[in-house]
Amino acid sequence: MKNCKNTNLIITSFSSRAAAECFSTFKNLNIYCFDFFGDLDLKEIVDYSFSLKEKKLVFKTEELYKAIKKFLVQNKNQNYYLIYGSDWDNHPELLYKLEQFENLKLRGNSAAVISKLNKKESLKNLFQIAENFGFKTPELFLSHKKIINFQRQAKNDFLIKPYHSGGGLEIKTIKELKNKEKKFKDIFTKKKDDFYLEEFIEGENRSCQFAADGENAEIMAFTRELKAAEVNPYLKKSFKYAGNILIKEEKKEIEIIEKFIKNITSRYSLQGINGIDYIKNNQGIFFIELNPRFTAAVELLIPFFQEDFLKIYLKNEVANDYLIKYLQKDFAFSTKLIYYAEQNFKLKHDLRKIFQRIKNNKIANNFIDSKIEIKDLPIKGEKFDKGDPVFTLIIKTKNKNCYLEIKNLLFSEFGKYFKEQS
């Protein structure tokens, strides 16, 4: 499906550049993006880009809905497909509103599916289903009554997780808040319906991307998921999403995951590309969560499945050979990596030129066989606070050691540069 016949596609997400890149090579496909950032390299590959940052609007998905609504009304003689990513899965009420537009077809999971998955009962059910198919699961405290009775002297640490979040935002540990009595009480009194407790499991964070057609599901790939604290020592205790590394999973784990995703797909009528997060340690694999929407890791799959993305979303067609293709491929050490600001600063120069200079002076001669790209480029003059995402790196190299050398060198050089701008 290399060509489309005058097809209009709206992509909307916290950041839509990665998804847009997955679809940008199809001829006659017009792409319209609505997101928070409106990065420079996004604007270069799409037909239209609306960003909350550029419009100086509050970073809320409700504002994206308003912009899309206005766009659809102004272009009521045109028909559009819409694919959504992060944070829209926390707003089924907005997806319901989008489904009412006659000139729009929502692709991926419907508002009804997202609404059902957002219920606390469904969260409990997902963990039970995961156990039934061989996953281990962390201990959960979902009800306010159980949380109130929770003993903070429990043997294991627990995560305080918001019911509606994404990218690891707002996740804290009990130990982290033990000495912050007021904040601890606020979470479990004033915000008692917004959070739940999940046992903290030590191990490697992993994810599985899979395609679904409402009845059947097929595994596409596996990744190791990176957290900001692991990637950058300046961001200790941060659970923010910081990227992915492509990996190959073992047969036993594949069988467990395959049975699980097929069951939840038929049970909840999942469609499009979805993801599950899990933790692997010497006890087995622990189910953590379902992401029922396009995930940021999917752009690492472009070399494998770019021809399949439109079939999955626009035709609701799922092939049965994704995993075979993936496991047969030698993808070396492929990673996506997000750089978060280490201090407040204002970007005074073209980041692409800074990257090229660092690459030429520090990397080119030592890592000849490595491919390194910079993505999600901010516009000159943008301001950043400590902890804000600044850019993304896509690195393909020989092995983990080469990756770490490249990552540490680039982060160090960019850190020095941004410190001068602060």
TrEMBL record:
Q: Which GO terms describe its molecular function?
A: ATP binding; metal ion binding
Keywords of this entry = ATP-binding, Nucleotide-binding
> Which Gene3D superfamilies does this UniProt record tie to the protein?
ATP-grasp fold, B domain
Span of domain ATP-grasp:
127-318
Write the protein's name. ATP-grasp domain-containing protein
Q: Which organism is it from?
A: Halanaerobium saccharolyticum subsp. saccharolyticum DSM 6643
